[in-house]
Amino acid sequence: MHVSPNDNKRYRYFTLPNALRVLAVSDPAAHRSAAALSVNVGHFHDPADREGLAHFLEHMLFLGTDAYPLAGDFQRFISQHGGHNNAWTGTENTTFFFDIRPSQFRAALDRFSAFFISPRFDADAVDKERQSVDAEYRMKLNDDVRRIYQVHKETINPAHPFAKFSVGSLETLADRAGQSVRDDLIAFYHANYSANLMTLAVTGPQSLDELEAMAQQHFSAIINHDYSPLRIHEPLISAAQRRQWVTVEPLKEVRKLTLAFSLPESEYQYRTKPLSYIAHLLGYEGPGSLMSLLKSKGYINTLSAGGGISGKDFREFTLSLALTELGLSKLDDIITYVFQAIQLIRQYGVEAWRYQEKRQVQELAFYYQEPLRPIDTVSQLVMNMQHYDPIEVVYGDYMMAGFDHAQIQAMLQQMTVDNLRVTLIAKGFKYDKLAKWYDTPYAVKHFSEKQCEKWRTTYISPALTLPDPNPYIADALRPLPLEDDASDTPILIEELPGFRLWHGQEPHFRVPKGHVYIAIDSPHAVASVKNIVMTRLSVEMLLEALNEHAYQAEIAGINYNLYAHQGGVTLNISGFNDKQPLLLALILDTFSRRNFKPERFEVIKSQLKRNWENGAKNKPLSQLYNSMTGILQPNNPPYQALLDALDTVTLADLPEFVEAMFATLHVDMFVYGNWHRHQAKALAETVKDALRVDDQTYQESVRPLTLLDDCGTVSYELALDHAESALLVYYQSPDTSSEAVATYTLANHLMSATFFNELRTRQQLGYMVGAGNLPLNRHPGLIFYVQSPMAGPNQLMAAVDDFLNALFMILLEMSEARWQSSKQSLLAQIREPDNNLRARAQRYWISIGNKDYHYERREQVAEAMESLTRADMVRFVVNRLKPRTADRLVMHSCGSEHREHAELDGAHPIRDIDAFRAICGRSEE
Ligand SMILES: [Zn+2]
């Protein structure tokens, strides 16, 4: 098997007697085990009169087997032992996966494999889970991605299985005369699921022999019917859909143009990747690119190439463009330029050196790939096993086996007007059709002769050119030797007024990669909502000015990100570190020029405006969350406040604002990974020069948090135009000690699976249900949330309160063994070592932000947790969480379907946020 020389895991690929293909991956250093199983059965297999059946089956397999008949048993077992599980149904595959503590792997596999051996499909569970699928469908009724996806389905060849509705609903899954959905479910399962269509990936610290034996023992009993994989004989696009122009009305303020070429199946070309080569050139963002040209004309904001749906027998290749207002009136011209760019590649762009360059980047990425979490490893590999040759399951995604001029040209020859379909997503057009299931308005016409003629161009604008060789591809391919005094943890190596530098040469992962963080705190940046908005505008303008020139760096595996936060802005550079100084110099240079172009200012302002307006249309739970953090974190205003302030900002405000911001800086810098100390210092010098840091005396910005001590239950209602109701309950710890973090974290771990099982699986209140940890600033916290098509906020609140009132009993009734194993698995999770350099760099950076300069916090939390007793937890639940006495914030919105239901009672409504904050305490970090 082809694996990276830097990969210390061991692999074994084998086939069980029932034809199940298995990949075992042994990683002695792993702290958890994981498994994934994929079956080559997806929504394409749904019977015409039972749309969504494959998806429904995916849900039902979790809900009871002969060996383990209880519906919530699998989930509870996994989460009790510190694991996670999930599944998804795609077009041609359904995939299930989980992870868990290694000591429980065998027991978990016994439960997991039973899904595919003896599922029960209990009538009662079938009946309830149907509601859950329906809630999943209804939850996405206002989701543009789904709404537009449905139009896509309706405008391709109706005889192709992609045309079918994939989610399912109460209607498609209803019992009909003489035909119960349970019978259909069982029939579907037996007619499609078969061991020969399945792949299984297992990983853990166990040896290959042990893993193989476990696979054999638990999965050999899956029946092999020797079914053939589904072949699709219908083309995705038939003559009637060629040269088709579809206009779709979105709910959100978006303007998007998608060009889709229908190409022959290309999965078998994974070794040479001709389409990635083409996507790389068409999607290029540097000077002379299609993107650069269309942007300079003011037609578009973003462009991406190479997406599109694909399967065993079909492939779409798309180009997606986010349009400006002006672009919306220049569609024919935009498409003309696209064809010119394709023509340019056809004539001059198919060259071996370009392929080699891309290949080198891929090889580097493969050689020095960062270890994934075990659950991600198996989820990825199990899909690769479905598509790639056994020897290439690890390498397949990266491999570029050789430049094949003819193969690339053959693909380019198919990117013609006759093979094109265009989808325009924008408001303000005429739509004469409504998509089924989602009621999306849309219209279909064909290209005019005039359009076709215009697009069959052979002319190429001189403004379009091909990329230059990439200067950012790493030369130094070996990690630097370790310095004599290299330390495991970061060390503060420079401390001046207003400037601190931490450095660490990472001794463990030994990859030629590095992370640079530069946090620029400025009280002026966050002094008012208007300043917060100006900070974000400046960030966007800077990113925009950078993009064209920094794009090559991204291609070469160096990433950069600049983002605004509660204290100012942070710049992060990561990836191969060899050429990072070059990129940093470019960024700082762009920074210092502060070139605020008026035409781009207007475009970016309107883009931000649309983003925030769209945020204000997100699903109810997201909006409750956004509004809640707005109440609690004054430096993190909600969308509406940002929008109001944005209206008042003009271009003339920016230069002065930025000057004032730079006059009061405090900079924390962290250079970590493959860097020697003198290199870190050199990077710091360039930063200090560019930001004019000298003798500053400024402190970090203050990050205020509203405290809820002694406020009782307070509530805030959001009036939203949505069918479903939503409720979010937030508990905040008054103190930030390690003991408090341990208590809140353990409480969440002990109850979240039960909460989910109670409100979603048993009561069927909605699809989005959960409990989680929510630390804000440094205060630990807990949230409970539910979004429901079934019940209004008062009923949801009652369900949450019933749960919380019963919680101490659940804790008391828990067996000693279960209590111990829950706690131990959480402790193991907390102490789990970092998976890769990225995770480690991030953890240290967060520690620095939390002023945990000895990097001991994690261990202190673990120690505090070790000493927590069951009595402590019961006391915590009774004193802090019990509804009658708790301090908590309840965010809620009433769905249009529930206006008749009783209003939320038992809470003090917040009428005025400022007044509320004034009576509350406030922490300032
Ligand atoms: Zn689902």
Automatic annotation (TrEMBL):
Keyword Metal-binding among record annotations: yes
Coenzyme PQQ synthesis protein F-like C-terminal lobe domain boundaries: 746-845
EC numbers on record: 3.4.24.55
Pfam families attached to this UniProt entry: Peptidase_M16 (PF00675), Peptidase_M16_C (PF05193), Peptidase_M16_M (PF16187), PqqF-like_C_4 (PF22456)
Required co-factors: Zn(2+)
Residue ranges crossing the lipid bilayer per the database entry: none
InterPro entries: Metalloenz_LuxS/M16, Pept_M16_N, Pept_M16_Zn_BS, Peptidase_M16, Peptidase_M16_C, Peptidase_M16_M, PqqF-like_C_4
Peptidase M16 N-terminal domain residues: 21-158
Signal peptide as annotated in the record: none
Peptidase M16 C-terminal domain mapped to chain residues: 182-359
Domain Peptidase M16 middle/third: 366-645
Keywords: Hydrolase, Metal-binding, Metalloprotease, Protease, Zinc
Entry's family note: Belongs to the peptidase M16 family.
Function: Endopeptidase that degrades small peptides of less than 7 kDa, such as glucagon and insulin.
UniProt protein name: Protease 3
Taxonomic source organism: Salinivibrio proteolyticus
